[in-house]
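re: the backbone from monday

yeah here it is again, tokenized this time
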């Protein structure tokens, strides 16, 4: 079933992608985001204002309680001054170091 969120985006009500994205990987995204944000001397509030989302969104992402949309990801990278591919490479390097299983990997 699909519903519209406040931004008008269609989203799967049942979280269809949850079976693809391992929760530990979602946690790794949040942890890396927090790490880079702190390295950039930004509070959650400052960071949220810079990318145009509520502070609670940043908190939820950093605690692995919410996924990042593609547009949010691009805004995050722009504000942090990091190329999207560099963020992903760093994420995967951290994931490999922590032995986090990525989708499709056994």
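seq for it, each position gets an aa:
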């Amino acid at each position: 079933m699909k519903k519209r969120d406040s931004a008008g985006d269609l989203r799967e009500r049942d979280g269809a992608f949850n079976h693809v994205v391992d929760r530990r990987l979602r946690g790794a995204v949040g942890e890396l985001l927090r790490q880079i944000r702190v390295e950039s001397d930004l509070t959650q509030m400052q960071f949220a204002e810079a990318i145009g989302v509520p502070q609670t969104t940043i908190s939820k992402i950093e605690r692995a309680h919410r996924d990042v949309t593609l547009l949010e990801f691009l805004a995050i990278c722009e504000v942090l001054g990091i190329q999207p591919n560099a963020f992903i490479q760093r994420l995967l390097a951290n994931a490999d170091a922590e032995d986090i299983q990525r989708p499709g990997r056994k």
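Confidence is low (pLDDT under 50) at residues 6-14. Residues 23-39 form the longest helix (17 residues).
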